[in-house]
Amino acid sequence: MKGTSLRHHVMPSPNVEPRQKGKTARILLLHYTGMESAETACAWLCNPASKVSCHYLVDCDGRITQMVDEDLRAWHAGRSLWKGERDINSCSIGIEIHNPGHDRGYADFPEKQMAAVVALGRDIVARHAIRPEHVLAHSDVAPGRKIDPGEKFDWKRLHEQGLGHWVPPHRLGGGQFLQQGDSGEAVEALQAMLALYGYGIEITGAFGPETKSVVSAFQRHFRPVRIDGIADRSTIETLRHLLDALPEVAVAPT
Ligand SMILES: [Zn+2]
């Protein structure tokens, strides 16, 4: 099975197919399992009836299990969108990180598990030349539908260890904010900035439930101390810094 040279187990999933239209892995997508145990998750990901799979599963002890060949399309993203791309499964590698999830007493990610995720993620992005800003959460590509791996996942640590794109969140407090029900040019500018970063959001100038979901997804990844879907100054400044930190994309004028 084509994949990592790091020490790992293999448990092939039948839920695979070729990547569509010659697409290749450009995104590393991180999930949590949301199940009671890694064993249950593994069985589910190998069950043809589940119609789900991923390339790798990382359990709480940092044990890595490969389930799908990296050349093949695994079924982990579902209905999703990033930078205009809707077939995320065809252009990504998916890692399921075992965690019981928000419905089962969302747990901290143990040290051994985080170390394994970092090592595996670095190995994957190096071999596939995946850009730092293409290391994403499931919640980023499916806001409003998914919240994994969630706000306890340590994106700062990933970045410090050379994986993913991240800037220190701007401090809370002060300034004006935008929230559901608002409309106008400031909302349009916010939507344009989120779309420029990659989020699937329509630029309408009206702050509706969709915009709230995307702002929440952004906060869960980049400003996790407060996830309320309100674009306060801290949220907007963090987004602006993030766009500034992209090498080749200029920030849209506001
Ligand atoms: Zn997921």
Written account of the structure:
This protein is an alpha/beta fold and 254 residues long. The protein has two domains: 9-160, Peptidoglycan recognition protein-like (Lysozyme-like); 185-251, PGBD-like superfamily/PGBD (Muramoyl-pentapeptide Carboxypeptidase, domain 1, Orthogonal Bundle), CATH 1.10.101.10. It is 30% helix and 11% strand. It has seven helices and eight strands. A six-stranded mixed β-sheet has the order 1-5-4-7-3-8. Strands 2-6 form a two-stranded antiparallel sheet. A hairpin with a 5-residue loop joins β4 and β5 (64-66). α5 (185-197) crosses α7 (233-244). The longest helix has 18 residues, at 111-128. The protein starts with 8 loop residues before the first strand and ends in a 10-residue tail after the last helix. The protein binds zinc ion (ZN).
Compact summary:
The chain has 254 residues and is an alpha/beta fold. It has helices spanning 38-45, 111-128, 138-141, 155-160, 185-197, 209-222, 233-244; strands at 9-10, 16-18, 27-32, 56-58, 64-66, 72-74, 92-97, 135-137.
